[in-house]
Design goal:
single chain; alpha+beta; 13-stranded antiparallel beta sheet; 5 helices; 13 strands
Length: 251
Amino acid sequence: MTAAAKKYLAVVLLLAMPLLLCVSGSSALDVQALIREIEQQYMGSSSYALSTMQVETTHWQRSLEMEAWSLGRDYFLVRILEPVKERDVATLKRNREVWNYLPKVDRVIKIPPSMMGGSWMGSHITNDDLVKANHIDEEYNLTLLAETTDHYLVECLPKPDAAVVWGKIVYRIKKQPRVPERIDYFDEDMIRVREIHFDDVQQIGDRIVPMRLTVRPLEKPDESTVLQYHELQYDVPLEDSYFSLRNLKKP
């Protein structure tokens, strides 16, 4: 090989190196583990949270203060603290089942599959979100669409036998710190219908999490639901027996 050819080859390799590094990094990425990590940031093995939820629609506004407990991926209990007229309204999730408790009539209502797409607490979050949010890696086939210096873009398409609401979900995830930046939701016709934005990133113990998320229905651009976390505690001592219908009713 002549000196000129060697020089040309060296230049080509130098120019190609960033692409090679990008391909190498992408192939080494465990996309399922990445999405599982993102979805479980707020819960960990167990957690306690204090938050407020602001719901704005074209007809009314609503503000709720709530506390919530979780255990793993399958147990979740949330109870309203304020306003007073809705205090102790609560929601329990056990595995793939959801119940609501209405203290004014002292009644527990199990949410049927036909109502899973319905609004939770009047917000732009659905009952199905509560059930499926921590099981995205089980319900969807995941693909790394793109990788830049700062972000991953991950596409989630439903598995053939999955009973899910969304036709596609796309995650935009920051690399440093590794937190979600935006999630786009598409209907069965692959039309983007909802997005969730994450911000107010803070360090809580050894975790870095966005403390605020904003849900926007794209067909109603003037509406939104903003969930703001005020307190997050991890590794709270909880047993699965805590997540019972009895505790759902217990203030």
